[in-house]
Structures are given as structure tokens and as C-alpha cells.
Amino acid sequence: MKQNNSVTEFILLGLTQDPKRQKMVFVIFFIFYVGTLMGNLLIIMTIKFSRTLGSPMYFFLFYLSLVDTCFSTLIAPRLIVDALSAKKSISYSECLTQVFALHLFGCMEIFVLVLMAMDRYVAICKPLNYATIMSRQVCIFLIVLAWIGSFIHSMAQIILALRLPFSGSNLIDHYCCDMQPLLKLACMDIYVINLLVAINSGALCASSFIILMISYIVILHSLRNHSAEGRKKALSTCTSHVIVVVLSFGPCIFIYTRPPTTFPMDKMVEVLYTIGTPFLNPLIYTLRNAEVKNAMRKLWHVRITSESKR
Fold first, then answer.
1. How far apart, in whole angstroms, are the C-alpha atoms of residue 208 and residue 189?
2. Are β-strands 9-12 and 89-91 bridged in parallel, bridged antiparallel, or unpaired?
3. d(CA 244, CA 175)
4. At CA 160, angle to CA 157 and CA 162, rounded to 5?
5. Which fold has domain 9-309?
């Protein structure tokens, strides 16, 4: 049940209080956000309209880019606007909504990365049964299951957040609302709730990361029986996935698997998680994936050709 709170809004202190640095924050993260939107939307449009990218791997990549777009849009615009605002306020309800959406899309990204690793495992280790195991119906079912799991995870976070009473300071030393900054402001003993947050979020990140690393070790071990060309292609794809996994899970584990103590690098780590990773993911997948680059060239060629004929 929602606690009685005298606090109706919070003040986000952001990344810095220095006016000159705030202008730098505005410029830097505006560029990052525009780049994130362009990169992820380009991948989404390429996969949607390309006839050559119909495999389950690109089906999951489509949802990874979609989630990254939503994840970045949830955080970056407010950070950009607040960098030039005198009062960086956010209402209590907006703050809880941000917590819910942050965990919804963050959890969904974790599940999509797990599904992408599962897809690579089946494709490399069980190639004869790949079409049956990873059919279109199965992929759709897995994505729906991932959304349901993410929703349940986010609801658990909101239930915990609603139990926090706020009657003192409303200054959040962060650029967004999340459970850790809110726990520091709560007027109660937060040991049990912090433990539940660590179990709910931290254990999810850590266990998923371990599962992913084990799956990729198994995949790399099975590549011994493949041809040199097959090994090269599989290694290129798996390397991209591993880079994204490390970039996503490293900050996530750091943020959610420890007590609510403050470290100097906390904000920078969360910036990497909430803004850096959505920006880097499309670069990693396009620069290291020849099929995506070729599909993009073909789509642009078709578009340019159709425009020239008008």
C-alpha cells in the first residue's frame, strides 16, 4: 500500500551543478541521443523492410534496437532538458513511472540478450534442428514471455517503491529516478527492501550474465568441429554479442548487486548503462555484421533508384 508522504515532488541534482559543465552535458548527450535514435531506428527499418534479414537472430535484434530506443528516450531527453533548467523537478508519480519504465525496458534488454544467445547456441550447436526449434511461432512466444517477465519484474520494483515513506529531503543526487537513489531518501529502515531489490534486480543481472557467459563458452567449444569459414562467421557474430553483453551487464551488476552506498563513479556507470549502451549497440551490430551492412546498402540503393525515377 502507498505510504503517506509529505514529499510530492523530487529535485534531480543531475550530473553536475556547474553551469559550464551543464552546457557541456547538454551538447554531449544531445549528440548521443540523436545518434542513438538514428542508429537504432536505422536497424529497425532495415530489418523490417529487408527480405534477407528474416532469421530469428535479426528478429531478436529488431526488439533489442526497439528496447534501446525506448530506454534511451526514457532517460536522455529529461537529462538534456534539465541540463539547462534552473529547477530540475519531477513529481512523485512521474518518478515512480520512470522507475517502472526503467526496469521494464532494462529487464527486457536482458531477456532479449539471453534469447539472442539461445538463438546462436541452437544455430551453432544444433544446426539440423534449428528451423524447428527456432520457428517464427517459437520466437514470437519467447518475446511475449520476455515482455510478461519484464512487466512482473517492474511491478515488483513499484510495489517496493510504494512502501517507501518520504518526509524529509526531496533532493535526489542523480539524473533519473531509480530505486537506489530513492532508498537513500526513505524515512525508514531500508535493509529489508534493499535486500529485496538486490534479489529482484541484482540476482537477475548476475544470474543472466553467468548463463550467457556459459552459453558462449559452450558455443566457442563447439566451433572446433566447424569449417574455417564457419568458425570465422560464428566468431564474428558471437564477439559482437559478447561485447554488448559485457557493456550491458557490467554496469547493471555494479548498480544493483551492492548495498545502497554512494561511490564517486556511480553516475558515470549508470550513464554508460542507460545512455552509452543504447548508443553503442547499433554501432557494434552494424560495423561487425556484413549482412546488416549489405541490407542497408540495398535498401538505400532501392530508395535512391525509386526517387530518381519520379
1. 29
2. antiparallel
3. 24
4. 110
5. Rhopdopsin 7-helix transmembrane proteins (1.20.1070)
* Residue pLDDT, tens place only, 192-240: 888 888 888 888 888 999 988 888 888 888 877 777 777 777 777 778 8
Residue 51 amino acid letter: R
Copy the grid coordinates of residue 15. 550530473
Under DSSP, the state recorded for 202 is I
Strands (E), the chain: 9-12, 89-91, 171-172
Return the domain boundaries, the chain: 9-309
Contact 98, 71 (CB under 8 A): no
In 3D, which of 90, 74, 101 has the Cα closest to residue 155? 101
In one-letter notation, the amino acid at residue 159 is I
Q: What span, in angstroms and rounded, lies between the C-alpha atoms of 113 and 34? A: 24
**pTM score of the predicted model:** 0.89
In the DSSP assignment, the letter for residue 273 is I
DSSP 3-state percent helix, strand, coil across the chain (nearest 5): 75, 5, 20
